Amino acid sequence: MPRVKVQRKSTAIDMTAMCDVAFLLLTFFILTAKPRTEDPVPVDIPASSITQPIPDDNVLMLTVAEQKVFFTVDGNDIRKQTLNQMGDKYGIKFTVEEQTKFSGTPIFGVPMNQLKQFLQLDAAQKKEYKQPGIPNDTTANNELADWIREARKADVALHNKALRVSIKGDNKEEYPTIKKVIGILQRQEVNKFSLITTIRTAPKTN
Description:
By secondary structure, the protein is an alpha/beta fold. The chain has seven helices and seven strands, in the order αβββααβαααβαββ. It has one domain. About 40% of the residues lie in helices and about 15% in strands. Strands 4-3-2-5-6 form a five-stranded mixed β-sheet, covered by helices on one side. Strands 1-7 form a two-stranded parallel ribbon. The radius of gyration is 25 Å and the shape is elongated. It starts with 15 loop residues before the first helix and ends in a 7-residue tail after the last strand. The relative contact order is 0.18. The model has no long low-confidence stretch (mean pLDDT about 80).
């Protein structure tokens, strides 16, 4: 008895569900991606052979370059609260617009008496503006210590967590500036902090 030949048909796969998943993943990564913060001055960080990633959130970073110190803290709400606390401390009233602009400013390095003028600059002007750094004189004017203290207070009040502190220093920065920053942290009993480095390339072998 002859065999019945089964007609072969091409397999059709509905990719609609896969496309939906792909677009959902793409949207998720776009919305959760953290943009890279551009430093106000060029920073050539030193090399290290140890790899330990820095957390992506809840970080207070101090950038040290050209004998200047710049301040960064994660979270728009923490920045806004810190600004208000600093305003109360220094007797400066910031408007709602200024608070909004500051909360969207990832890094800055200007004294308190210049902060209002700095916030009035647009993005292009801020990029061209030569920021003088945050005053950190241990005897007369130590605004940096106040920024660190108030940011830590704001984080505890808003999120009940302790900020992770990191120092990002230029490879050619003089040691006294770094020592001064570390001394400020130690006086606030911040004895655990991270030093930002890049990976040292392995030596070539013949």
